[in-house]
Specification:
Helices cover about 15% and strands about 25% of the residues. By secondary structure, it is an alpha+beta fold. The chain has two domains: about 5-175, 3-Layer(aba) Sandwich (VC0467-like), CATH 3.40.1740.10; about 185-225, no CATH class. Strands 1, 2, 3, 4, 5, 6, 7, 8, 9 and 10 form a ten-stranded mixed β-sheet that branches. A hairpin with a 5-residue loop joins strand 7 (about 100) and strand 8.
Length: about 240
């Protein structure tokens, strides 16, 4: 297996979109915004896993007075399985707070409390996501996962990052790659997705969009030679 050299690939300001073989793991059906990628590894924020927590609960824990009630109703996301007790605010705006990392001219990551103070007063960035935790990869690890077809990648867009239509974000991102419009087909012509993608015994039904199939498997309908446009299934090697 050929592994891409990590000094030849920079996915900063890109999306990782989980492929079906990640179903059942933390990263199943996720879109990850990559805010750092280099010789020391990679860091990202999952932008479509809402928690059953509202921002008002975070304000309460930090003794921040809510002066703009709408801000307390914002959904908090699970940003990844690393540093889950740490808050990350992914936002636009052309200004910095006490602890802000500039990713692009209009995308930043802030981890300091002062941005929450401003958000509670309605003086924060126009667009933002608040997440607990992040995702991290050691040097070369992400490249190996991409080579194993665990992820597809595409340039990030603010429209997808800050959309609150969390369930649709993977489809929105896949649309940018072209995969959304060219679904893989079962050998009998049926399009399958979701859990069907990992269950070779699933009976064919005319549902959904995108899947991978083990080419050697045969469905109950009797069709074999299942098409696999995206290469053979791989397996994420991440250990958390």
């Amino acid at each position: 297996m050929t592994i891409m050299s990590h000094d030849k690939l920079d996915l900063t300001n890109h999306f990782l979109i989980a492929m079906p073989q990640l179903s059942g793991s933390y990263f199943g059906h996720t879109v990850v915004y990559m805010w750092q990628h280099g010789d020391d590894g990679a860091l990202g924020i999952v932008v479509n896993l809402p928690l059953e927590i509202k921002l008002g609960e975070i304000f309460s824990q930090l003794d921040i007075e809510i002066q703009r009630p709408e801000s307390g109703e914002e959904t908090v996301l699970s940003g990844g399985p690393v540093e889950t007790d740490k808050g990350f605010i992914l936002h636009d705006a052309d200004r910095d707070w006490q602890s802000t990392l500039k990713v692009t001219d209009d995308i930043r990551i802030t981890t300091s409390r002062d941005i929450l103070d401003d958000i509670s007063r309605g003086e924060g960035p126009e667009n933002y996501l608040v997440a607990l935790g992040c995702a991290g990869w050691s040097p070369g690890q992400l490249e190996e996962e991409i080579a194993d077809n665990a992820w597809i990648t595409c340039p990030a867009s603010k429209e997808i990052i800050f959309s609150h239509d969390f369930d649709r974000k993977p489809d929105m991102g896949r649309g940018d790659t072209g995969f959304y419009h060219e679904p893989a087909h079962h050998g009998c012509g049926t399009q399958l997705t979701g859990q069907q993608a990992t269950d070779p015994e699933y009976h064919c039904k005319n549902t959904a969009l995108l899947r991978l199939w083990h080419p050697q498997d045969r469905c109950r309908c009797g069709a074999d030679n299942h098409q696999n446009r995206l290469g053979p299934p791989g397996h994420s090697r991440r250990k958390w």
